[in-house]
Amino acid sequence: MKINKLKLINFRNYSKLDISFGDNLNIFVGDNAQGKTNLLESIVMLALTKSHRVGNNPNIIMKNKDKCKIEGYISKRQVKSKLSVEFNIDGSKYIYINSTNIRKISDYISNLNVIIFTPVDIDIIKSSPNIRRNLLNVELSQLSRSYLNNYNEYNKILKIRNELLKKLNYDYNENDKIYFDIITDKLIEKSIPIYMQRYTYIEMINEEINDYFNSITGFNNLKVKYVTNLDVDNFDKKSIENNLRNLFKRNKNRELSYGSTLYGPHRDDLIFYLNDNDLKIYGSESQQKLAVMCFKLSEIDIFKNVTGYYPILLLDDIFGELDISKRNKLLKIINSVNSQSIITTTDLKNITHKYLELANIYNVNDGKIERS
């Protein structure tokens, strides 16, 4: 999977941009606040229809304009397509595949798969469980249309159940009880594939992550634990269903008291361990950053194995976070896989010349990009 060309109109500080990418390593060089991150963000939004930045789509439309447009020309081996996303000042958006308007986001996502790493991704380890769940949801939604549809349905049912719990806390009758039991059954039904797909995904991550960590740092025993409020040895359908049903049954009064659903995939978490030590508590910032980076690198092969195509790897200004040795070890890994990479940096110092010779290099200055 490659993005061959990108067009932007009134996106952030790009009034108009038309740029082509090389098939492998692409490096964008420029000072801070010139538009490097905006470029990567536009590719993420082309893929996911929303930003990876906090707040999703904050101020993406250029000042004094009423809409912006992102257009990408994609190739999957010999098959080419055009993807477009338009955002309006009123908050509406329109998505297109080959100029055909797509009504459901789930029918659009996965046409362009991206993996992005930024310096703020350390929050994946340091911040709340919601950040880590969002990571799982974004990646699994790109890999599985059924996951995205099921997850959206789960959230709708969860909202209904929470509203019922608040109501039942004050007003309770037999009809409410029957409806509540039906909603609980539906929530369990939607929970099962979410648990199973998340568990399988983390198992696949753990097959790769330590090798990448060792290649870059020389250290071993990095792993990720999938944490749920289930007590199961195997994440099979029957075990999940029985355990979750028992949890709801035993804790109904507790949930009524809280007025909220206390069990389910919306309470999941991930814990990163190095030598059995929780990196959130015992890890240095450097270890945390590299652990997240290796998580993202692990996803490259997973995406290839599941979809048949390598994803596009986006690395935003991370070289300043690494010493010279780790920079070049990372570039060696990136160069060894057949994934198109788009990297931003403030300078090319301390990057081995052989990697620069293989790369397409661009200069970014105040919303203008020129090939070096």
Task: Describe this protein with a few key phrases.
372 residues, 15 strands, Glutathione S-transferase Yfyf (Class Pi), Chain A, domain 2, 6-stranded antiparallel beta sheet, globular, alpha/beta, 6-stranded mixed beta sheet, Rossmann fold
Structure report:
- This protein has helices at residues 36-48, 123-126, 129-143, 145-168, 174-217, 237-250, 252-258, 279-282, 285-307, 324-336, 353-358, and strands at 2-11, 14-20, 25-29, 67-76, 79-88, 93-97, 100-102, 114-117, 222-227, 269-274, 277-278, 312-316, 341-345, 360-365, 368-371.
- With 372 residues, it is an alpha/beta fold.
- The protein folds into two domains: 1-113 and 309-372, Rossmann fold (3-Layer(aba) Sandwich), CATH 3.40.50; 122-307, Glutathione S-transferase Yfyf (Class Pi), Chain A, domain 2 (Up-down Bundle).
- The strands form three sheets. A six-stranded antiparallel beta sheet has the order 2-1-4-5-6-7, covered by helices on one side. Strands 8-12-13-3-14-15 form a six-stranded mixed beta sheet, with helices on both faces. Strands 9-10-11 form a three-stranded antiparallel beta sheet.
- Strand 5 (79-88) and strand 6 form a beta hairpin.
- The relative contact order is 0.17.
CATH homologous superfamily designation of the largest domain: RecF/RecN/SMC, N-terminal domain
Biggest sheet strand order reads 2-1-4-5-6-7
- Helix and strand sequence: EEEHEEEEEHHHHEHHEEHHEHEHEE
Using the CA coordinates, give the radius of gyration: 22 Å
According to DSSP, the number of beta strands is 15
Mean pLDDT: 93
Note the quaternary state here. single chain
